[in-house]
Design brief:
It contains 15 helices and two strands. By secondary structure, it is mainly alpha-helical. The chain has one domain (4-385): Growth Hormone, Chain: A, CATH 1.20.1250.20. A two-stranded antiparallel ribbon has the order 1-2. The relative contact order is 0.14. It is found in: Cell membrane. One of its GO terms (cellular component) is plasma membrane. Residues 5-390 form the Major facilitator superfamily (MFS) profile domain.
């Protein structure tokens, strides 16, 4: 049975993401109408703008709203996305797509890290939190499965421009659901200067080996998913002479594979630690990209590959909340979730332009080859930064603390405990 507060937050997430999924399909078709075969380049630019907003604005926004009530931050950000979405049906030029994406994702840069950091406060049990992460992954997959399926049905009876109306409804109803939810407050926290709030999450993140490994694996995931998101419409319409509904189907099977993984992961993570699951997904994803470079599949096999890439993608990204929760004290979790949001989107900031430019210039298989090399680089970095073992408790020495410091009480300068980067632990012992 769902926790009542999480249940409402989950419902709000589903509503917003269904609207976002309709937006993804409609935006791809709009780009194809405006730019034809160059639609991949237009979408790559649009998604690059999205990443710039996420990377550049989320740390600043996070620092600004870090002392504001979470509930109102979520409501205002969701409502702002709904207002921006009202303009989407009236877009007639490519530059308007870029402006709308920037404004929409600026609001998302506030909403998403705040939402993600709220869930650990609602669900304190590790198993409950693991299940919640999988449900959240399923919600994200609705953007790639249920929404395209709905879009495919709607496109049989109406123009894609009407799909943008679903985006508006999704955001506004999501905002209303949050307004009726008892969102937990931030609690009593140590007050820090704005400059420290701005950089603290990134400093903790980059000082923690498992989080540097997470960042590296995210690069692998971004390499595969960027190709899917940016180029599916071109591959299906031009490569397979598919229809608008076929585009929706291809995106849906990618999301379907991801949903299969999300259902399986809670049980799998009870038997295995996060690292082998995430690394295994990254290896699988990279291998699938390599096979697509070598072989040119027929339509059915293409859909099978898309579903398997979706499955591997979910195995990499779903457990990330467990790593973030494990790697930060309660007071710092909002900052670390914001850091993950910003730093992870640097990966897509790299891969979206590569996906669009290489597809436009050289076609599907060379584009996959280039992105496959990016995926391999992410894997190698993950093996280097995040070695096997990853113990919670680490032996370390505090040469920087006086003998009477409270942290040393009864332990001495050299001791062993669960290590988290904080005011007493600025660096990781034997840091790579």
């Amino acid at each position: 049975m769902l926790h009542p507060v999480f249940g409402k937050l989950f419902a709000a997430q589903v509503l917003a993401l269904v609207g976002t999924g309709l937006l993804t399909v409609a935006l791809g078709l709009l780009a194809f109408d405006l730019a034809g075969a160059a639609a991949g380049g237009v979408l790559a630019t649009a998604y690059t703008i999205k990443m710039v907003a996420y990377v550049g604005l989320s740390p600043i926004a996070g620092a600004i709203v870090s002392n504001l009530p979470r509930k109102w931050v979520l409501i205002v950000a969701d409502a702002a996305r709904g207002v921006v979405a009202l303009a989407l049906p009236f877009i007639t030029d490519i530059w308007q797509i870029y402006l709308a994406i920037f404004l929409l994702q600026t609001a998302s840069a506030v909403f998403t890290p705040t939402f993600q950091a709220t869930i650990p406060d609602v669900l304190e049990d590790d198993d409950d939190y693991a299940k919640a992460l999988s449900l959240s992954r399923l919600a994200y997959d609705l953007e790639n499965l249920l929404s395209p399926a709905i879009a495919g049905l709607l496109l049989l009876v109406m123009s894609y421009h009407w799909l943008f109306g679903g985006t508006v409804i999704g955001f506004l109803v999501s905002s209303a659901v949050i307004a009726m939810t008892a969102v937990p407050g931030r609690g009593v926290r140590k007050q820090r200067p704005f400059r420290e709030r701005l950089t603290r999450g990134v400093r903790i993140y980059l000082a923690t080996p498992r989080l540097r490994g997470l960042w590296s694996l995210t690069l692998t995931a971004a390499a595969a998913s960027a190709f899917v998101i940016v180029n599916t419409v071109v591959v299906v319409r031009n490569g397979y002479s598919g229809s608008e509904s076929d585009v929706a189907l291809a995106l849906a099977v990618f999301g379907g594979g991801s949903m299969v993984a999300a259902f399986a992961l809670p049980g799998l993570l009870r038997r295995l630690s996060d690292r082998p699951v995430m690394v295994g997904g990254a290896v699988m994803m990279t291998a699938l990209m390599g096979l697509l470079v070598i072989f040119e599949p027929g339509w059915i096999m293409f859909l099978v590959f898309w579903s398997l890439i979706g499955l591997a993608y979910a195995a990499v990204v779903t457990p990330q909340g467990r790593l973030l929760r494990r790697s930060a004290h309660h007071d710092d979790q909002q900052a670390v979730f914001t850091a993950q949001f910003a730093l992870s989107h640097i990966c897509w900031l790299i891969t979206y332009p590569i996906a669009g430019a290489t597809m436009t210039a050289w076609g599907m298989r060379p584009a996959l080859a280039v992105l496959g090399l990016v995926a391999i680089a992410g894997l190698l970095l993950a093996f280097y930064f995040w070695p096997k073992g990853d113990p919670d408790e680490v032996t370390h020495t505090h040469d920087d603390l006086p003998d009477d410091h409270p942290h040393l009480h009864g332990q001495g300068h050299t001791h062993r405990h669960a290590l988290i980067i904080d005011d007493e632990h600025h660096n990781w012992p034997n840091r790579r």
